[in-house]
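Dear all,

This email documents one entry for the complex benchmark we are building for the journal club exercise. For each entry we list the sequence lines for every component of the assembly. Then comes the predicted three-dimensional structure of the complex as a token string, followed by one or two observations. Please use this as the template for your own entries, and keep the labels exactly as they appear.
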Amino acid sequence: MLNPYEIRRDFPILRRKIGGNQLIYFDNAASSQKPIQVLEAVKSFYETSYANVHRGVHTLSQEASELYEEAHREVAEFINAEGIEEIIFVRGTTEAINLVAYTFGLKELTSRDEVVVTLMDHHSNIVPWEILSRIKGFRLRYVGLTEEGLLNYQALSETLTPKTRLVCIPHVSNVTGIINDVRKIARMAHEHEALIFVDGAQSVPHMPVDVKALDVDFLAFSGHKMLAPTGIGVLYCKRRLLEEMAPFHGGGSMIKQVTYDKESERCIIEWSGLPWKFEAGTPNIGGGIGLMKAVEYLRKIGMENVERHEKELTRYALERLGELEKVQVIGSQDISIKSGIIPFLVEKFDSHDIALFLDNFGIMVRSGFHCAQPLHQQLGIRHTVRASFYIYNTQEEIDKFVQTLGQL
Amino acid sequence: MPIQDYVARIEETCGEEKDFIIVLKYEKKEDAISKILKKATLIKSISGIIYDLKFQKTSFRLYKNGKMIFKKLKNKKEVEALLEALLS
């Protein structure tokens, strides 16, 4: 079992007061807070072992390289990847999606192809494909939602054709918290010989995710939503695909050799092995080490416990919010298919009004579109307020939150 | 310039109907709130935390924690002009 009160001791920021009120942080779907173990690991790295990674023969470079590679190993084990060759460190989920678009997409997709995305997606899993479809001429097909705000699997099934090359879906909606059946969608995509790309930004930090069991081809997630620093994220990709894919950025580290050929007056380039072929330039080494510590921290708690705790908080929050007549929770309230995200509105108030009101009491929630405007259009609402939970949140915080909303 | 003295940030939200969220400078917020409340017409106060106000035919909300929301304004210039008048 997870004890949030013990966990809270590891998070210095949670001791902060805002306007005289104890901070209540319910904006975890946007970014998580950081435990002292992660902060110390990053600090210690810069204080004792910092140097640039790879190709350095000196002691510090060796130490930094080992730590950085260990970070890849830790992440590979966390999501049950084959090995570090399948783990590319990027800036975050957005960069991971762009990497796939501008490597796999640019090379493989043609005007005869179709790419499927959903109206449930975050803008970051829509915009790169929209941009690329304008360059390459492939057709982008959108799958909508059911009345309850769930992904319409029937419509998805009807959208898949022999022309479909890639299916892009969010594992968990960043607005409604609805968990999509990735295994089922992967099977549907593979039956059509299409690949599946999963935006795991809202799933990997909150539940067990096993890339082999789900049989996904690509999975992207961000470190900052799972206790790690900002500027570090992960793209998982099946090794056989990465071997075929061209590099994303060119520069140092991602090449084995660059030789000038006098005859052709060109440089002949040989790429580095995986995953380094996709990590050009000096990487975010400190961020990678922070991510490793964050993953260690989560594994120690156990992702099943993380998921159970968040579901329990969500169930409790939905029950308490149900006591307030003027509060309308948006979307399905079925806990079995929902993560720790609750979108809601309060009668006669705009989402920003509600968030600013709660801010007066030290309660941090997000308001607006949450970078998912098409989803809001589908739901027929302008904005939502989003409360999202994590390992350090408690039922007492939910009580304070509901009591405060009641004053509005 | 009153804006430079009192306003920390003007944030424009995304979407078709843009809102402008104004964050007053923390150390000057009490002074700024007092100036605004004197100049604008109070429509209603909610829990003493949110003030529904009207100034030069524009409705807006002021929060006790030093934030404001302007809705349905065309652009940032319009917001700045109102703030200049409210805070001068």
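Observations: The helical segments of chain B are 2-6, 29-39, 76-87. The beta strands of chain B are 7-12, 19-24, 41-46, 50-55, 58-63, 67-71.
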